Recover the amino acids of this structure.
């Protein structure tokens, strides 16, 4: 069994890598890069060489390519001490065309060209526009090296930085007492209560492991997952952070800082990260902190994107299974009866009507007739606002489960062993309970882990209609905005969920049905 | 003796080389258009001054080959460029002559008047037709008009803190009275108080919260590293500028208290307000604002390269060495023209005098940035920035909790696609002026067309624009009759423009896309026709822009967002009386005259039937937007008849049987764009009686369409005879921000096919 699961996991990981490879090929290789300028008001204001520089800068930011202007190369030489200020100043000025270069510039341009061409870059030089005509464009000559990032290199670097583990050598500066300390009494709680914590010095996070009274009670900062850094939607923020950090209004509480200062503040001291020389840099920090672990997150009153999506999704799933399966059974039981017919009408309605339409219908009905809130307000404590999104999500799932349960049941009812059981004289209800149901439910169980896990991904339309701050819209927003690494990251997230839920579904099936086994011995 | 002989010989040789050189540079004349013609650009090669009577009559090339086939894949850009100067001089020479006069003028008011005259000449050339703008929607609202800052450029107009918001919707007649009051009081500095009194007299109650919908979340909170308007609209509520425009559009000191300009116009020295505090998102004091914060801001702007840095380079304000620093040629920031002379004295040095420098101060790019706070969030300057910004340790601007605030509001909640809440900053230096203590933005993706109206009536939001479905409802229940008004238009001008020197007859990136059906003969004729002013005017007069606009905004509001001039009519108004010469008559324009009125005076004097300012429009307040001042079938036919006579002299016969073909590419995947294209086609061909064919060139999708114009970087690659795929918004408060775009080498010149 263990061996089988390991094998499945390996296969899963392999498929995930392939999926990411394909997605990267699509995004970075096959898509038209000019598209990112379609809605760009600045692009509209650029002409000539200026426009070229702008385009390459943007492409670099979006992760399409490597782009090194000649000036940046000289700056790096200057920083490394290979040339002095004076040489830099002279060499950095390139002529309007190659013939007008100074001797010194020529020499460094040659070196630049050689260096980058050997690395597989293409060195591009565009001359300044010619002058002497009435219509002339301003703008200088430009020189840069560029290359498309090689696909496998891109894939490797992506997976290499996917998971990062905090360590005591994170801080590059001189720090005394580098190391980890374990304490039973977290200094965060001034009362000296029992609260174990692992704290680091020299690490990125001050608290690597700590407990508090919020779910799931034990928290860690040791391992960070980097799914992919956003450039467009949430600039500089990893999409995993976007999904998991809490949202909403600042939620101040009484906080006692390391210096002993106590105030009402939303600062979450458990999230303190290291920022070199930051304590002296700001008046706020000097008054509150005694080291350079000063950058903190803030407490927010609401849940994270994943949190909202999961709560709504999981309740909807529970309702769906709780109602869908019994109704499906009842339909099969009274096949062609009135109940079956009414239920079939409902199923057909859900399949035939586009989801947007019936979600609006539920919204209108719920808002007008039941006076339920139709907009999700995260600042309110009114639990009723969960009602309509959950119902909107559950109703189609119910129909789906009804359909399949009924179908599997009726399938089983026509099989030989049922006929045999009838011939044996079992009552219909006995046959149903003991034989048909048990067999029919097996394929249904396979989908349960998937339904639970995919509750996390959120629902695109439902969340938009009721303005739920969930995770459903992440992928579509990223695709619309060409936020390339977010697309990759969310794809990875979805792919992982798929793989895990399929494996778990198989395991669950083997638990429900003893005939299914994954060990060789038993066969 | 011998050396003298050689010198003479050498001189002879050089002279003959020079002569040959001149001859070689002269544009070719297709004196014998024949089947031997192979070079694509030759038809365009002739002297474009068509109305010149000494021009010999030419005969059209008799060649039915498609231009696209004739061109093959490669043509020489040099041939194209060679005659661009001459075409520019012939078609836009008059505008250039007048405009250069305006640019030489130092007196601001006189300069604006001369610019208006130059614009009139520009419009008369018929090269472009201003078409539409944004805004102009039917709306209802609880907000008093002009109670927020007024300026058509920069960021001030989006500031909300002084808004007067009533608890009830403002009635139509009250709103109109307020607008008329603003018109009268503009420039006196009393409108705001009068409006308050007016509201009290009419029995309205004012409240201190304002809620409205938004559609796009800020992508970053680093206001110096972004060009997205969605970002700056949110961020500018958290910062302040040196100077800002008030409710009447008058510049008022803000973070600065005073300024001086050096005699040569190159140095601007600002005295800063003392005791202004930077705070964090929780209102805790970070530091006091000093002049160095403006230096840090400028350096960060140039390091981050967010897109708007062009505003401080020579394309905008022209800060000394800003361009060189961007290009990496200057690495020491001390050489860039922004300096803190002492804690409260700030000095900007420019490369050349810039009359509109003060008007740019309301842009985010001139806002300060707290240096100490930036440092504490892992920020660095200079060449290290590129490396550091990709690190996790760089936190600045990644959330509203990672910036320092100096403006009227603190961001207390920012939840993507849900809401953004701004609450009044208790440490704001000018907090007495803040009427709106809480500004809430609610996300609305527009999927439910009735939501804005329903929520506005229910009081969830304080105003909304009406779309076709909610407009019907509002008309039905009488609310539109009671409260409705037309929202103001923005400063962006979308225009329709000719390609004066077309070279591409298929897309430059893919020769199979958007292929023109014109033959060599057609192209030769079209080129000549487009280079005739009367033909162009006939064409522009025949375009029914209202029907065209109706396809995107709806029939009910099709006139509201029509623009008649290139520079918006109300972009500037005169501060003092100005006397200018209009066709030999000294004409006096009193203080308060709108830019558009002067343009109109010149157009009238020249006898053109174009209306860019109508004193009766907008319920008698006067306006240049909101009606069609160009569409004129009679004038169109008249101009076409003149054009036919003139063109006949240069060998172009125009008749119903032998019409001029004008290519217009459009994205056929989009229903509204297809309808717009057909609306133009119908009006042109109808008015001009089929003598001009509006030739629709379908592009499969938007990308293909963009490659005909927007993505085609040079005039050489522009694949159309007429196009509308471009708009222009202002960068500073001087009409030059528009008019410069059609100077030789200006941003829009390649749109009319000239390189």
């Amino acid at each position: 069994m263990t061996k089988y699961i390991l094998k499945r996991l390996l296969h899963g990981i392999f498929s995930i890598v392939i999926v990411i490879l394909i997605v990267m090929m699509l995004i970075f290789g096959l898509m038209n890069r000019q598209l990112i300028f379609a809605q760009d008001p600045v692009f509209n204001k650029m002409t000539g060489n200026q426009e070229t520089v702008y385009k390459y800068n943007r492409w670099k930011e979006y992760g399409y390519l490597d782009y090194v202007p000649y000036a940046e190369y000289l700056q790096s030489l200057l920083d490394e001490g290979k040339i002095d200020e004076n040489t830099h100043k002279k060499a950095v000025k390139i002529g309007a065309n190659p013939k007008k270069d100074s001797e010194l510039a020529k020499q460094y341009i040659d070196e630049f060209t050689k260096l980058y061409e050997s690395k597989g870059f293409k060195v591009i030089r565009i001359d300044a526009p010619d002058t002497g005509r009435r219509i002339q464009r301003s703008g200088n000559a430009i020189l840069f090296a560029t290359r498309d990032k090689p696909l496998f290199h891109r894939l490797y670097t992506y997976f290499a930085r996917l998971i990062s583990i905090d360590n005591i050598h994170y801080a590059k500066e001189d720090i005394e007492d580098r190391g980890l300390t374990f304490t039973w009494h977290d200094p965060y709680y001034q009362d000296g209560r029992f609260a174990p914590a692992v704290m680091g010095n020299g690490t990125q996070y001050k608290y690597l492991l700590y407990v508090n009274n919020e779910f799931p009670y034990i928290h860690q900062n040791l391992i960070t997952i980097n799914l992919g850094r956003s450039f467009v939607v949430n600039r500089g923020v990893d999409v995993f952070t976007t999904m998991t950090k809490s949202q909403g209004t600042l939620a101040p509480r009484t906080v006692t800082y390391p210096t002993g200062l106590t105030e009402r503040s939303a600062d979450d001291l458990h999230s303190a990260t290291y920022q070199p020389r930051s304590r002296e840099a700001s008046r706020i920090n000097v008054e509150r902190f005694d080291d350079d672990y000063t950058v903190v997150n803030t407490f927010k009153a609401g849940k994270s994107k994943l949190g909202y999506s999961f709560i709504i999704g999981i309740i909807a799933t529970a309702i769906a299974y709780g109602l869908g399966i019994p109704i499906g059974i009842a339909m099969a039981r009274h096949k062609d009866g009135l109940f079956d017919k009414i239920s079939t009408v409902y199923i057909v309605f859900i399949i035939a009507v586009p989801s947007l339409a019936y979600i609006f219908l539920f919204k209108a009905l719920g808002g007008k007739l039941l006076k339920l809130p139709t907009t999700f307000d995260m600042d309110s404590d009114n639990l009723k606002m969960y009602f309509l999104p959950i119902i909107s999500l559950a109703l189609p799932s119910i129909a789906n489960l009804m359909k399949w349960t009924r179908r599997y049941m009726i399938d089983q009812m026509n099989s030989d062993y049922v006929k045999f059981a009838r011939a044996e004289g079992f009552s219909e209800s006995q046959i149903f309970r003991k034989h048909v149901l048990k067999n029919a439910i097996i394929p249904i169980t396979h989908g349960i882990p998937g339904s639970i896990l995919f509750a996390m991904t959120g629902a695109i339309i439902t969340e938009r209609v009721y303005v739920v701050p969930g995770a459903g819209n992440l992928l579509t927003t990223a695709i619309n905005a060409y936020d390339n690494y977010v697309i990759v990251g969310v794809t990875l997230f979805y792919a992982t969920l798929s793989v895990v839920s399929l494996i778990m579904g198989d395991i669950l099936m083997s638990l429900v049905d003893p005939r299914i086994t994954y060990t060789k011995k038993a066969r | 003796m011998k050396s003298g002989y050689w010198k003479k010989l050498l001189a002879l040789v050089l002279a003959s080389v020079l002569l040959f050189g001149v001859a070689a540079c002269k544009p070719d004349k297709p004196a014998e258009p024949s089947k031997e013609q192979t070079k694509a650009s030759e038809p365009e090669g002739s002297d474009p001054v068509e109305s010149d009577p000494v021009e010999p009559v030419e005969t059209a090339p008799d060649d039915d080959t498609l231009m696209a086939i004739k061109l093959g894949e490669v043509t020489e850009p040099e041939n194209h460029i060679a005659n661009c100067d001459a075409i520019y001089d012939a078609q836009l020479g008059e505008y250039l002559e007048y405009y250069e006069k305006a640019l030489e003028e130092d007196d601001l008011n006189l300069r604006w008047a001369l610019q208006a005259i130059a614009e009139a000449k520009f419009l008369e050339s018929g090269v472009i037709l201003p078409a539409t703008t944004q805004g102009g929607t039917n709306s209802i609202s609880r907000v008093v008009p002009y109670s927020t800052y007024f300026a058509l450029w920069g960021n001030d107009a989006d500031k909300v803190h002084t808004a007067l918001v009533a608890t009830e919707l403002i009635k139509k007649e009250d709103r109109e009275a307020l607008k008329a009051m603003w018109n009268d009081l503009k420039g006196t500095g009393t409108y705001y108080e009068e409006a308050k009194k007016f509201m009290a007299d009419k029995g309205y109650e004012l409240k201190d919260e304002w809620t409205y919908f938004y559609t796009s979340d800020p992508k970053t909170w680093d206001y110096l590293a972004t060009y997205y308007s969605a970002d700056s609209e949110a961020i500018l509520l958290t910062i302040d500028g040196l100077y800002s425009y008030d409710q009447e559009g008058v510049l008022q000191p803000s973070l600065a208290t005073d300024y001086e300009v050096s005699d040569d116009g190159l140095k601007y020295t600002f005295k800063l307000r003392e005791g202004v505090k930077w705070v964090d998102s929780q209102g805790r004091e970070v530091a006091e604002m000093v002049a160095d914060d403006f230096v840090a801001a400028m350096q960060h702007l140039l390091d981050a390269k967010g897109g708007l840095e062009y505003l401080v380079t020579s394309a905008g304000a022209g800060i000394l060495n800003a361009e060189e620093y961007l290009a990496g040629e200057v690495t020491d920031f001390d050489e860039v023209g922004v300096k803190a002379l002492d804690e409260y004295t700030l000095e900007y040095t420019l490369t050349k005098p810039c009359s509109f420098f003060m008007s740019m101060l309301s842009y985010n790019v001139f806002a300060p940035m707290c240096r100490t706070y930036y440092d504490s969030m892992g920020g660095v300057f200079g060449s290290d920035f590129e490396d550091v910004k990709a690190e996790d340790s760089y936190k600045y601007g990644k959330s509203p909790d990672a910036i320092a605030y100096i403006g009227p509001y603190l961001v207390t909640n920012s939840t993507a696609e849900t809401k953004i809440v701004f609450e009044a900053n208790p440490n704001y230096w000018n907090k007495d002026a803040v009427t709106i203590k809480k500004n809430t933005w609610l996300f609305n993706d527009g999927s439910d067309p009735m939501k804005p109206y329903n929520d506005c009536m229910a009081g969830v939001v304080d105003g909304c624009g009406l779309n076709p479905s909610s407009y019907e409802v509002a008309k039905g229940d009488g609310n539109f009759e009671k409260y409705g008004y037309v929202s103001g238009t923005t400063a962006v001008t979308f225009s329709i423009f000719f390609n004066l020197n077309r070279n591409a007859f298929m897309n430059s990136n893919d020769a199979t896309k958007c292929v023109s059906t014109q033959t060599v003969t057609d192209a030769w004729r079209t080129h000549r026709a487009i280079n005739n002013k009367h033909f162009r005017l006939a064409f522009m007069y025949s375009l029914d822009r209202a029907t065209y606009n109706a396809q995107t905004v709806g029939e009910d509001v099709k006139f509201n967002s029509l623009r008649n001039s290139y520079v918006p009519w109300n972009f500037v108004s005169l501060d003092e009386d100005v006397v200018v010469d209009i066709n030999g008559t000294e004409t006096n324009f009193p203080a308060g005259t709108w830019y558009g009125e002067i343009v109109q005076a010149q157009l009238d004097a020249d006898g053109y039937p174009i209306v860019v300012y109508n004193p009766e429009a907008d319920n008698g307040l006067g306006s240049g937007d909101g009606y069609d001042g160009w569409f004129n079938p009679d004038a169109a036919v008249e101009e076409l008849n003149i054009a036919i006579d003139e063109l006949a002299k240069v060998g172009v016969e125009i008749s119903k049987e032998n019409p001029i073909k004008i290519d217009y590419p459009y994205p056929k995947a989009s229903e509204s764009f297809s309808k717009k294209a057909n609306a133009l086609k119908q009006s042109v061909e109808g008015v001009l009686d089929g003598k001009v064919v509006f030739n629709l060139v379908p592009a499969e999708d938007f990308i293909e369409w963009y490659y005909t114009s927007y993505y085609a970087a040079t005039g050489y690659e522009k694949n159309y005879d007429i196009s509308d795929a471009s708009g222009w918004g202002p960068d500073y408060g001087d009409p030059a921000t528009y008019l410069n775009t059609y100077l030789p080498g200006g941003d829009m010149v390649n749109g009319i096919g000239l390189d």
Observations:
- The first helix of chain B runs from residue 2 to 25.
